[in-house]
MFS transporter (Devosia rhizoryzae), 525 residues
Amino acid sequence: MSAAVEPASELQDPSTKLVIGAVAVTLLLASLGQTIVSTALPTIVGQLGGLDHLTWVVIAYLLSSTVVAPIYGKLGDLFGRKIVLQVAIVIFLIGAVLSAMATDMTFLIAARTVQGLGGGGLMVVAMTVVADIIPPRQRGKVQGLFGAVFGVATVVGPLLGGFIVEHISWQWIFLINLPLGILALVVIAAALKPRAERVKHSIDYTGFVLLSTGLTAFVLASSLGGNTFPWFSVEIIGLVVGAVAALAAFIWVEARAEEPVLPLVLFRNNTFAVTSAVGFLVGMAMFGSITFLPMYLQLAKGISPTDSALQLVPMMVGLIGASMLSGFAMTRTGRYRMLPIGATFILIIGLVLLATMQLDTPSWMVAIYMFLVGAGIGPVNSVSVTATQNAVDRQMVGAATAGNTLFRQIGGSIGVSVFGAIFSSGLASRLGDIMPAGSGTGAFSAQAVAKLPDPVRGLVLEAFASALHPVFFTAAGAAVLAFGLSFLLEERPLASSLRKEPEAEIAAEEHATAAAVGAPIGATR
């Protein structure tokens, strides 16, 4: 029997609004960490060299933030959200300062890894705080607003990155995090209360190490395969075997752990399983698009970093608008199932259109394509967290939120790795007979392309544009899978109260039904 849909109440408590503000600042910090680098990558590569390592500036952050997401969720459940969130921000800022000090790509990649170790906690713990204070029904609107914050950061990040690279230096794209991080620390200190009660601390270190090892090996294999090493080389096969072994051991350990990092029981929950799978696939499309669109605009179209960021605005307008509309729709109706179905269909259309771009594609057409991609991404992010938090017991909200984030980040990491390998191998094959002998592509930039002789430059630009086509077609294939999986999502009306867990509401409903008909409790299942 389906629960009645009650109207959602407005958020009036000033302390609740302050907490929401603190979470918004934290999410802004985390989002900027992911997006501000994108338009600066060609310039960074031009100065530090290493085009073949370009995607690792993004992957390092995504990978490290991915593998620590589950442990942050568990630590927040055990020690309280406030202290864990503050520690994450400090680690994030240390990584940002180290990134600004980088003198070569290896140093920068290592520093971005540190930054990701902090960034992984910002998103997970901040989103879990919302589940502590706001009923699931009201979370639809709040998650929509947070989706807008992410969208704004995705607009401001590349734009700010492009402006800083053009007018100051690329180091400031990392240092700009300092004032925002300090603001986040101040707001969180004022808004969040520390955990008063004591809980038994039991951290699944073995599970954390095994999960980190498995994910790292898998992403390394997907990134290095076909690029640094052949797909069937000893190195790649070894990484794949190591990843499978580590993840198999992780499952074995989690089934026996007292406090598992990622409780296996979550995968028996339809909402968690489906939204995590869809989030994984949409994460591939999202991070792949954000990473490679600026490259197309700067290198293939020959525009500046700032202008390339401005041309990403339509994509972010679509993301922000669709995210907010889906959030308000969830709050108004208490339902969500059709949102990811419609969104992933729009995403497929946008990605297929991006895969058809040529050097002479009009800018207004590219803007429409990007708008469609953004509109397809926004609702998925809003629905996943809200629906999952509504479908699990209160004591598992932290782990479930971390799990959702984990799969979306894994998708992003693997997507950037796979797309980077596809792009690099495609570009290398196309440039093999074009570039002058010994020129290489390690420090390729818009300035380097501009210095080439006219006939060669035209061929190089065509090669860049053509090498990106398989990237967007692959992303569209992932979106098709996400569209199909969305139909498996079960509808569970969003609860309007924090007092009862979903299972408790079902039990109460059964109790009332049994009392009315004189049947034993449980007979109505």
In short: The chain has a mean pLDDT of 74. The chain has three domains: 14-193+259-494, 204-258, 499-525. The chain is about 75% helix and 0% strand.
